[in-house]
Amino acid sequence: MEAEAAVLAEGLGYDLVTFTDRPSEGTGDAWTVMAYAAGRASTVQLAARLDAEARPASVVARGVGSLQLLSGGRCRLFLGSSLAPEHLDVVEEAMAVVRALHDTSSSQATSPGVHHRLTSAERGPSLERAVPVWLHGSSEVVATLAGKLADGWSVDFAEVGVRGLAALNAVVDRAAAEAERDVREVRRAVTLAGEDAFDVQAVVAMVVEHGVSSIVLRSSAADAPEVRRFIAEVAPAVRAGVERSLPTGALSSRPVRRADVRALRRPGIAYDEVPDDLAGSAVEPGDAAFSAVRSTYLRGGNPGLVLRPSTADEVASAVSFARKHRHLPLGVRSGGHGISGRSTNDGGLVIDVRRLDDITVLDKAARLVRIGAGARWRDVARALQPHGWALTSGDYGGVGVGGLATAGGIGYLARKHGLTIDHLQAVEMVLADGRLVRANANSNAELFWAIRGAGANFGIAVAFEFEVDEVEEVGWGHFAFQAPDPAAYLEAFGRVVGDMPRETTPFLIMGRGVAQVMAMVDSTDPDVIVGQLQPLADIAPLVQQQVVVTPYAAVMNMFPETPHAGQGEPVSRSAFVRDITASFASASADLIRSGASHWYQIRSVGGAVADIAEDATAYAHRDARFALAVMGSNAQRLDRWFEPVRRQSDGLYLSFESDRHPDRLTDAFPPATLERLRRLKAHLDPDNLFRDNFNLTPASDDTRSAS
Ligand SMILES: Cc1cc2nc3c(=O)[nH]c(=O)nc-3n(C[C@H](O)[C@H](O)[C@H](O)COP(=O)(O)OP(=O)(O)OC[C@H]3O[C@@H](n4cnc5c(N)ncnc54)[C@H](O)[C@@H]3O)c2cc1C
């Protein structure tokens, strides 16, 4: 059975197995067999050979798309036809339908056609890698069509012979050139059977002279002797022969993009100079993966190139590429939940470190954990839970480690355990000059200080080492109140939280007429939990309440991750206050009533956060007991109502602010902190490569000597 053949072939070292539709021979429907094989085998590529007229192309597109997702991008489609050459428009139409449905750059697809057509069909699924569509056949029409449109051309050697192969290959090249395509876009495959497959010299010639990249062996049965003989004898001999014959570097594994994809390239980017270690995972506009990486959770974007390193060395390589593109915007992305940071842009570069997401316990006794910058806080919470540990982070599990751990980290355990950065023991960071450095209290200590609050300005963090806390289950309360007088509610909330033990950290969301409080109590004792939450519950008439004992990880996993499809620019404002005074509450009430904001949230800080000295980290607002985040859709309108609130406040949390006015930088950092940061910036990033997130301009020459 062909599905078993795939497992056997994979075990023997074959790269590709093809499945032919031969139901009349009792082999089963190729499509279904291939899906089954994809689940049984784990690495081998799989190609279905289908006649374009045999099934509705939209059904094929949905099926192959789904299988591409499920198999981790291992599918190809070999389209052929048993119709006469003059009817081969059916192949072209089928290919157009498959491509249109897989192009997720917009939501609906239309493809005109006689045999296969689409009208305003929903596109999808969204793919990491497009399904390559090859055309299979030995006629000149097929070769021409392949050259014009397809990702590859495949032919049975027995049908064409040496001369036919050369002639048709030239047809493919000519058609590609006429369509203004790079001939390398159209890969070539030849199917061999019998003695033809064992003529090493001839096979080498196919690769070297005709650019054939896949040799397919047709065998009588999956376990036939020739299957083992070919992979044991012919494959290595052909590889060696090809290496001998071709100049060094000619066998590049860099992807060759289709002309229509290259046409979407943005100016000023040396696409062909993307370093080899990053080329395979880089995403350009027009690539299948682009729609999934162009925007972030809140911000719409259209970058020119997204680099996705998976090692620290690759991050260094990406930084070196970015240095050569200093003229372009540069976004650094971990979890894509940035508000202040611009981890996407228009026409620039993005270095996305989401693949650096390992979470490793380094020292169990010391509770020391190494966490990759690309991990999400929900994954961190899940990984720590079995040890009875947690690391305070934020209120949302989808946020990335890299952005939050370089800014502060105001989470549900803040009053008991401090900020996320207060747990940091060391960080590994790639600097603007490409060096990978480790910073801790003893080495690169100034950088270690700066990273804890202003890290985004100094490089790309690849991993963090944290001392985490012993946190078993926690008390989790969720209350909704009638709050017709927002000022009165806010003042009462401020009083209650001011007197609260530090085990409890409440966050308040204030709406028009309704207030919601989410509060975590670091205790499993029901009496402690209820005792500490009761004063909160007494603030105003309750309309809903829930109190449970639950793992910290369950709170971090409360909201499922949604695809990042942000649009436009988030409008967010931030402020710290020590106390919720009557005038702060009154200005806030005016803001809430104005309708200029759709989100007004106060997080309690204080407690353990205030145990750290103001100058111990770049995050300086240690005496604040409340952090305010307000979001709206119209910046001007929001600012009109927010300004009176800001006048009552003292500083801001960088991660909740989107206003780029230079004053915001002086709100975020006290003068001494700001000066110290700018001196370090001048030392480590004098050309200001990392500037997309509250840019600290390097100190001028006369002040930089102190670094
Ligand atoms: C729904 C939501 C909930 C939030 N809740 C909280 C919360 O409870 N507490 C809290 O403190 N914050 C919270 N935030 C703010 C959040 O912490 C910041 O926006 C943070 O920057 C997001 O990190 P990220 O890696 O997901 O973002 P990204 O968009 O990937 O990055 C944002 C910026 O961070 C910098 N950055 C990212 N990765 C790195 C890196 N590896 N090295 C150096 N710099 C890097 C870059 O400047 C980048 O532009 C929340 C944000 C959202 C959208």
Walk me through this protein's architecture.
- By secondary structure, this protein is of the alpha/beta class.
- It is built from 24 helices and 26 strands.
- The strands form six sheets. The chain has a seven-stranded parallel beta sheet. A seven-stranded antiparallel beta sheet has the order 23-20-22-21-25-26-24. A five-stranded antiparallel beta sheet has the order 13-14-18-16-17.
- α5 (140-149) links the parallel β6 (133-136) and β7 (152-156).
- α1 (2-12) packs across α2, α3 (57-70) crosses α4 (89-102) and α5 (140-149) crosses α6.
- The longest helix has 22 residues, at 157-178.
- Residues 702-707 have low confidence and may be disordered.
- The site of flavin-adenine dinucleotide has 38 residues, from β11, α14 and β18.
Q: Which helices and strands occur, and which strands form pairs?
A:
Elements: H1 2-12, E1 16-20, H2 30-40, E2 45-51, H3 57-70, E3 75-80, H4 89-102, E4 108-111, E5 118-122, E6 133-136, H5 140-149, E7 152-156, H6 157-178, E8 187-193, H7 200-210, E9 214-218, H8 225-245, H9 259-262, H10 276-279, H11 290-293, E10 305-307, H12 312-323, E11 330-333, E12 349-352, E13 359-363, E14 368-372, H13 377-384, E15 389-390, H14 401-404, H15 414-417, E16 424-430, E17 436-440, H16 445-454, E18 460-467, E19 469-470, E20 473-483, H17 486-498, E21 504-510, E22 513-521, H18 526-537, E23 542-551, H19 552-556, E24 571-577, H20 582-594, E25 599-604, E26 626-632, H21 635-647, H22 662-668, H23 671-684, H24 701-704
The structure holds flavin-adenine dinucleotide.
